[in-house]
Amino acid sequence: MKNFKSAKRAGNNLAADSAMVVLNENFKYFGYGYFDNVHDAIPPIKATFYSFRIMVGLGMWFILLFIVMLTILLRKGLDKKRWLLYAGVLSIPLAYLASEMGWLVAEFGRQPWVIQDLMPTSAAVSHLTTGSVQLTFALFAITFTILLIADIKILSKQIKLGFKEGGAK
Ligand code: HEM
Fold this sequence. Notes:
This protein is an all-alpha fold. Among the domains are: 44-109; 126-169. Helices cover 68% and strands 3% of the residues. A two-stranded antiparallel ribbon has the order 1-2. α3 runs antiparallel to α4. The chain is elongated. The mean pLDDT is 93. The protein binds protoporphyrin IX containing FE (HEM). The site of protoporphyrin IX containing FE has 12 residues, from α3 and α4.
């Protein structure tokens, strides 16, 4: 591409055409031209490996928990198995953890590419300033914290009002 550009600038169409042929022939490896070192093409193995296993492990746990719960439910004994009910409630945050782990798998695993073999992440970094990222982050954090507080207040109020047979109060 460098040869193509300089040939074009110099007005040498013949050289530009032959540079374009070389470029087209090698286009599927285009992204590798950004790397100085062959090791730059390797994703973070450890992070991908462990986050994948945590995600799948949790997935297996959810399947097992579901089967045990369903079996006991069908035998009409679920309300007597306090340990199982606790296991169910304590597993709720694990679903979020599994999602985060899955996201890490996808993000770490695709490094160093935003477009496989064509565009590495380093070439895709936006020109936003650190300040504007910090500002947007702060605005989101403040907005969602306010929403969380409002949510907790509304839910607590409803819970205190209690349940009424025949419909909500
Ligand atoms: C049961 C075993 C599971 C297997 C075999 C599995 C497999 C995978 C694979 C292969 C990926 C990478 C996809 C890719 O980017 O190419 C992935 C991503 C992901 N997984 Fe799992 N997963 C499992 C359980 C779970 C569970 C239980 C959750 C959440 C409750 C979860 C949430 C996610 C999320 C959020 C992603 C990222 C998706 C994305 O951003 O593209 N996974 N999973």
